Amino acid sequence: MKYKHIIQEMKESGDPTMMAFVKDVEKMKRLSKKEKDYCLRTRFLRESVNRLVEDFIPYIILVAYSYKDKTTTLQLLDLINEGILGALAAFDRSRKDGLLTKFRVYNCIRANIKRAIRKDFKLNIAEYSFEICVPEGQMNNADDVISICSEIQNIKEYLQ
Prior knowledge:
Blueprint: H1 3-11, H2 16-27, H3 33-41, H4 46-55, H5 57-67, H6 76-97, H7 102-133, H8 142-159
């Protein structure tokens, strides 16, 4: 889906937080080549990193939107926040080892979003398996215990 369509869909969501975010995103201006070069030369400064991360916001929104259906409890804004944290991590890592490429930033953004989705999935499975392990009411016979144990085993195998 195109970026403009995603922004329009975010506006129509009716969520006040989402609408405020979209309003802020629409106010952001893309960096010119000269500004981007300056920020890259001074990327050890927090303000330069913030401006560079803001320049990646459209890409972060696109990636977060593409992964929004893969999670049940995380909202689109949560995924966008994870993408922003990924971009910040890429710039922080570049300060340590000196390497920074657009590809590396893109990979960090995607990796952070995927990591958040995996973590969310594992938490949901853990809650589900706890409900199976601690059933409400009494167990009628040994078959109930065996079925619960086999269900737990299936969940363990699925997570590995």
